[in-house]
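QA checklist item 7 of 12: single-chain prediction sanity check.
[x] sequence parsed
[x] length recorded as 437
[x] structure emitted
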Amino acid sequence: MGSMKTTTLFPALPLFLFIGLLLSCTPTQFIDIRTNPPQANVFIDNKYKGISPRKDTIKFKGGKTSAYIQITKDGYVDTTFYTRFNRKKDFRKTNRSFFIKLKPKDVITIELVSFEPIAGSAGVKLNKVITKSLAYLEPLERSPTVKSVQRITSNEEMTLQIGAPVISPTDVHLIYYIYTKDEQGTFHSNIWKQDVGSPSRTKITNGNKLDLFPAFSPGGKYIYFSSNRISQNPNVYKINALGGGGITSITNTQAEDYALSVSPLGNLVAYTSNPPTASEPQVWTITETGNLPTQLKEGQNPEVSPDGQTILFLKEDKKSLIQRGSKSIHPKQIWTMKLDGTNETQFSQNSTYDIIQAKWSPDGKWIVFSSDEGKDLRGNNNFDIWMMRSDATDKTQLTTNGSWDDSPAWSYDGKYIYFRSNRGGNWNLWRFEPIIE
């Protein structure tokens, strides 16, 4: 029987030519994405491709007819859309250009770093706490109890944390700590000084330790602060307000000493202390030269009154419990006591909200504080600046922006209240004139 002869309709092709033929048959779309503003992140089918302006190529394989594109940028609403391939109308190779105008967000979430005493198995310890805070990008203050707010610092970095403002006795300078990360990736904070009315600032302390909670001496010559620069636990130190020179140790114990206030009479420093194995933070006093450390009461954040006779402080209310997100916390109450710890008096009765700072007015007639009693436009409890008389009457909400406002402090002439806020999208120091009737 003769052999059967077969005929090949398509001669054999080299492998690389066969693959090339298949690729040439795959529908391809060349895209050009531009955004306003530029430098936005571009994702195609949930894979990061780079930043805009961006050119890319999409292959519609295996019957795929569309690709999902997402544009993101901090401070702007995410934009998503599809680019499609129509097998009946489109050529195998098509070009698409997209111009996306991003819509600014009215509210963003930014990081909040705080240092708080937290109880654990080894007693209460000062911990770095990182949470999220809502920031309204519109900085306008519509409260009827304040005149327009004014930004004092010029921070534009979302990751930089500025601490509480402290005003000099002359109202010429203010000091604060800045918490940041250095080139080696180490987080630390230093004390900075700035002239009121000028954006320039001067570094007072240096190093990669944690320098926190600064306070002026009565004449403004020295700055007291808390630091772990010598030991792992923070202690109280003193430095010349002009910077440079030596640093004097005021406390030197195994306790954690922080959140301090210097008496206007210049003879005493009140501070928060976490002794080893203590279950609650305590209020202590010591002379300005570091002598006679004295334990007073359980509490934190002491503030010596303008006449030097009374200490304002905060204490957790163990009988009350409030829910904040996934956490349950004991709200803090405002208390006062005499310098020797006697005549302890509770000023606030908040069982549904928290208080995180409280300060005297220069004449001692008012107390300004930060509280989350109020709510923002979305119904969330939000920290704002509040005020009440020193007899605990006439409690008034001052700021209402919806952003996180805390760390209030009066100017020494009693005209302004300085505070920290993330309004506008970055942490900065602000001030306003309260309308007091």
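[x] summary fact logged: Helices lie at 15-25.
[ ] second reviewer sign-off
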